[in-house]
Amino acid sequence: MIKYFTVENYYSIKNESILVFDEGLSQDVGYSAQPVIGFAGANASGKTNILKALSFVMWFMRDSFLEIKINEKMPFEPFYSTKHLPTRFQLIFSITNGENKRIDYEYKLTLTTEQVLSEELYYYPDGIETLVYARQAQTVEFGPQVNPIPTQDLRQNCALVSFATQFASQEMAITCKNYEFYSNLTFKGILGSEFQPEILSSFLKDEKTYQEVRELLKIADMGIEGFYLKKQTKESVKKGVKENLQATLEKFEPFETNNTKGLFSQLFGVFDGFLDQVDIESQLAFFKHKIDGELVDFKPDAESDGTRKFLAILYHILNALPKGGLFIIDEIESELHQNLVAYLIGWFQNEARNPKGAQLIFSFHNSYLMKFLTPEQLYFAEKNDDGQTALFAAADFEDIQDLHAKNLEKLYRIGRFGATPRGL
Questions:
Q1: Fewest CB within 10 A of the end CB: N or C in the chain?
Q2: pLDDT tens, per residue, the chain with 424 residues
Q3: By C-alpha distance, which of 216, 207, 112, 105 is closest to 161?
Q4: So where are the chain's domains?
Q5: Nearest C-alpha neighbor of 11 from the set 43, 49, 44, 40
Q6: Beta partners for 328?
Q7: Dihedral over alpha carbons 7, 58, 108, 141 (to 10 degrees)
Q8: Strand 87-96 to strand 2-8: parallel, antiparallel, or no bridges (unpaired)?
Q9: CATH architecture entry for 2-194+323-413
């Protein structure tokens, strides 16, 4: 669970923003931080940027060594007027170990788009700060309980933690790498529904999971009675690929010349021969709907965007909950009914459903969802006339008496928290 996060000089976030997610915790629930954090605000206020910042630092710490090429720039931009200054992050998060004990980790990172300037990782067994790594440029110090590793292959554009995961002796780095984490944000924009037949395969791994998902689809009222996968023969896969290629080539017919006709014919012949020599396997997904009392099979492309998005979200949530993972999603209510989103938020709030402390961090526009958040769980993003994003929590408004008893949605609608389009 993310307990504390700071970011400075990242896209529209110019000055250091401090987010504290472990305040206002219920004494009845054993979480180390709030299990749900929601960010609201006007369009282009910076909600997505704070989620991108969280997603970036998690990705960079875990995966940058293998996913950033040599001499490639880091995939982010500093604030426009301070591009000459470094970008800074600080992250404190807890991971539940195999003994069901939560251990805190602290990660500090200072970098430009070309190189890491400094990087530190600490962990807190029994609450005592213990150094894992401290890095200044390419100089590395190892903590007292860490086996030193050779660092001549450590690049200036990747994280030391990510590099260290390549060595079996680096247990703390590997623990950070294995922390279950998903974000629907890439560094080029927001992903789509991401529905793949493999999602259904995971739902079909055992009867209990299948029945649970089936019931959830009924609760969501999407008209789906069941689903299954059907393996395609190699011949049918090849036939479909050839037909799609032929259809694509036919689109160019109005622009063809004698030369291009011959070229397309040759290309088709080469590709056709290639398909005959390779082994291709595929599975088709089918959903069962009841139509006039009869069960009818539909392919995924016949389902709505909302259905496909719900299935993709469901897949990642069902992975995160039993492992105590982190789930970041931008515009959570996009293509989904508000009641369905509220239902999913409730899963993370329920200790029986979320015993490992999985955490949901999301942005949203629909103020209805504020009804399901406490003041410590509700954050706002607001951009000033200089294009700078400010981030603050509803709990910061100490002048509002009995805030926890108030209707947060109503307070937001009347402008008490700000973070609304100022021209309206």
A1: C
A2: 999 999 999 999 999 999 999 999 987 778 999 999 999 999 999 999 999 999 999 999 999 999 999 989 999 999 999 999 999 999 999 998 767 788 999 999 999 999 999 999 999 998 899 999 999 999 999 999 999 999 999 999 999 999 999 999 999 999 999 999 999 887 654 444 467 777 888 888 889 888 988 888 888 888 899 888 887 666 666 666 667 666 766 666 665 556 665 666 666 666 666 656 655 566 788 889 989 989 999 988 888 888 888 888 888 888 889 889 999 999 999 888 899 999 999 999 999 999 899 999 999 999 999 999 999 999 999 999 999 999 999 999 999 999 999 999 999 999 999 988 866 6
A3: 105
A4: 2-194+323-413, 223-302
A5: 49
A6: 183, 361
A7: -160
A8: antiparallel
A9: 3-Layer(aba) Sandwich (3.40)
Nearest to 330 by CA among 90, 8, 39, 74: 39
**Closest by alpha carbon to 316, among 308, 306, 326?**
326
Q: Which of 222, 174, 179, 229 is nearest to 201 (CA)?
A: 229
Q: How far is CA 242 from the centre of its chain?
A: 36
Please report, as a single letter, which amino acid is at residue 160. L
Tokens in use for 154? 């450590």
Other Cβ atoms less than 10 A from the Cβ of 1: the count is 25
Amino acid code (one letter) for 304: S
Q: What's the whole-model pTM score?
A: 0.86
Pair of tokens at residue 120: 């530190």
d(CA 201, CA 262): 43
> Closest Cα to residue 340, out of 224, 217, 223?
217
